[in-house]
Every structure is written in structure tokens, then in C-alpha cells.
Amino acid sequence: MSLKRKDFLGLYDVSAEEINQILDTAVAMKDILTRTVKKVPTLRGKTVINLFYEPSTRTKFSFNLAAKRLSADVMSISKSSSSIAKGESLLDTAKTMEVMGADVVVIRHSAPGAAKFLADNISASVLNAGDGAHAHPTQALLDIYSIKEKLGEIAGLKVLIVGDIAHSRVARSNIWGLNKLGAEVAVAGPQTLIPREIEKMGVKVYSDLDQALENVDVVNILRIQMERQESGLFPSIREYREIYGMNAERLERIGKKAMIMHPGPMNRGIEIESSVADSPQSVITEQVKNGVAIRMALLYLLAGREIDNEDLN
């Protein structure tokens, strides 16, 4: 079993069939994470390099753990502790990794298109862990997996994404993936944080959060970046919290069947109250576990190995 592509750069050009293949594979991978011995020899002899040009805790740790659970050899390279800090270009770094025998390169970079540039210049598979405000496909997949695990089929579900849509690679990737699986996607936030003509991506747009919350099945709350307030994109943190923060009153209004999600890290007390983040409707901690399963699935599928009893037992 393998993907019909060398690289995995985003969900914009991925079919619903491929998304479901990844989700189905992640089910088997999550089963591995529940065992007493949480490791299989599936990628023994393969080398995975994590190349992170941006700070990261959850995503970087998740990819490291995913590769190790599959018995791959793992190397992590960060901007501050490598030749990148001395001015080495992305292309030169890529060529070095290729000579070192990388099978899969996981990259996070502040420049949109960096993952595509890398994929075009090395023979190893490239997995995009976030490129600027463009795409974050593994976060979207773990979000979709979490929804499907709790609510069943994605088709027909009403999913609301709240917050800074304009600067969010998570929002874009979720919209691409959810639309392909038949969900009804809406976004809500200040007009200054909503991209122009985003309706063309197949979403409804709301400036009134309370109106947007009517009859939703899932609320995915994005982290507010403090620098947006400093640059004048919304008046104040207090005002944002009152108008767009997910609080106990709004949680009660949407009912007990609705899911609460957040990609992390959270600003508790700003975009989400602790009572909401820690409520029974919240799957935020489960998203972290599902992230490891999704990344295991992608590493496995990109390596093009066959699942058999020997690999997964």
C-alpha cells in the first residue's frame, strides 16, 4: 500500500480517495499506540529527516515519535543548530540530506512553497509540516480523523472554523480536506482576518460568531497571534475575547453533541476559555494522539511499504 505520489505537500490536489486511504491507515497506526509495546519494524532501514526552519513543539515531537514508532532512523535538523544558521541555502541543505541517504524529509518553513521547492530538487519523499500561511496538511488530516472518530462520516457535517483565517495554514488545509469529503464548512472572525473572496473556496463567511454557531457539529478554534493585534488587525484582546472567544455560555448554546477542537497551542482565556477546552465536548488532547497516528500513516505510505501481519504485529 502506498500513495500515488512521491511527496505530500498539501490537500489542495489530493483526492477524497487518497484522504480516506490515509485515514484508514491511521486507524491501524493508532492501534499500535495502544499496545504495551508501541513499536513495529515497518520502516526499519529507512531514514527520516525532520528539517524545521521554524520553532515547533507539537508537530516536531509528533513526527519524531511517529518515525520511531515505525523503527525508522530519525535525524532532526533545526535552523539554530545547523549550517543553516551560517547561511546555507535550502537547496544546499537538501542536497546534503540526499547524499546522506534520506528516504523521507519532513520540512517546516516560513516561506510558502518551500516544501514544493524541496520536492522538486531531491529524489527523497517530502512531507510538508507547514509552509508559511499556505498549508499544514498533517494538522488538517488529524483534525478530520478526530472528527470522523467521534462523529462518524464527514459528509453533511457542519464545521465552523473560528479566528484568524487570513494567516492560518491550518484553516486553508482544513477547508480543502473537509470540502472534498462533503462537509459544510463555514468560517467566522473579524473582517480584517478573513481573506477576500474566500467564499470561492466553498465556505460560508460569518462576522457574527453567535449566528455562525447555530446548528454546528464541530467548532475548530484557531490560536490568535498577538502580533495581529499589535498591527491593528483587531482593536484589543479584550474585545476579541468578548466577540469571538469560545466561552461557557456559547458552549451551552451549541449543545452536548457538538465537538470542540483547537490545533494548539491555546491562549486560554482569549480565543477559548479553560472551561471549554477541558469540557467533555473537547477533543483537544485526543487530537495530539491522533496526530502521531496520522503522521505514522503518511510516513508509512510515502515509503511505499505493504501492510502485512509481519509489519504490524
Chart the SSEs and their pairings.
Elements: H1 16-33, E1 47-52, H2 58-69, E2 73-78, H3 90-99, E3 104-109, H4 114-121, E4 125-131, H5 137-151, E5 158-162, H6 169-180, E6 184-188, E7 203-206, H7 209-212, E8 218-221, H8 226-230, H9 237-244, H10 248-254, E9 259-261, H11 274-277, H12 284-303, H13 309-312
Parallel strand pairs: 1-2, 1-3, 3-4, 5-6, 5-8, 6-7, 8-9
Helix pairs in contact: 1-12, 2-12, 3-4, 5-6, 5-12
- Look at the structure and give the CATH class of the largest domain: Alpha Beta
SSE pattern, N- to C-terminal: HEHEHEHEHEHEEHEHHHEHHH
Structural class category: alpha/beta
Describe the global form.
globular
Strand content: 5-15%
Can you tell me the CATH topology of the largest domain? Rossmann fold
Q: Going by CATH, what is the homologous superfamily of the largest domain?
A: Aspartate/ornithine carbamoyltransferase
Largest sheet features: 5 strands, parallel
CATH architecture of the largest domain: 3-Layer(aba) Sandwich
Question: Please, what is the average pLDDT?
Answer: 91
| Distance between the first and last residues' Cα | 17 Å
Question: Count the helices. How many?
Answer: 13
- Helix percent band: 40-55%
Give the domain tally.
Answer: 2
Report the C-alpha radius of gyration, rounded.
Answer: 19 Å
Query: Ranges with pLDDT <50 over ≥5 residues?
Result: 305-310
The total strand number stands at 9
Strand arrangement within the widest β-sheet reads: 7-6-5-8-9
Domain Aspartate/ornithine carbamoyltransferase Asp/Orn-binding: 156-302
Keywords: Pyrimidine biosynthesis, Transferase
Function: Catalyzes the condensation of carbamoyl phosphate and aspartate to form carbamoyl aspartate and inorganic phosphate, the committed step in the de novo pyrimidine nucleotide biosynthesis pathway.
InterPro entries: Asp/Orn_carbamoyltranf_P-bd (IPR006132), Asp/Orn_carbamoylTrfase (IPR006130), Asp/Orn_carbamoylTrfase_sf (IPR036901), Asp_carbamoyltransf (IPR002082), Asp_carbamoyltransf_Asp/Orn-bd (IPR006131)
